[in-house]
Amino acid sequence: MKDLENEYIEMMEKNKGKFTAWVKKNMPGKSTCSAASKVMKNTKKYKPAVVKMANYAKNFGCKSK
Predict the structure, then answer these.
(1) Global pTM value
(2) Which of 7, 49, 52, 63 has its CA 20 to 30 A from that of 36?
(3) Under 8 Å CB-to-CB from 5, ≥6 apart: which residues?
């Protein structure tokens, strides 16, 4: 069994910054993490691609230390 704690899921270069850009356009004034939380609370309101980006941001970019 692999040690999953040490594995890092890397984002493809072409997708970097897409969710942040979406947030700036569609939720001005919100942080990326708060926008991700808002999207994940109401996934039916948003397109599947936005939900996927928000989920990734929430899981890998918005972890509190």
Answers:
(1) 0.77
(2) 7
(3) none
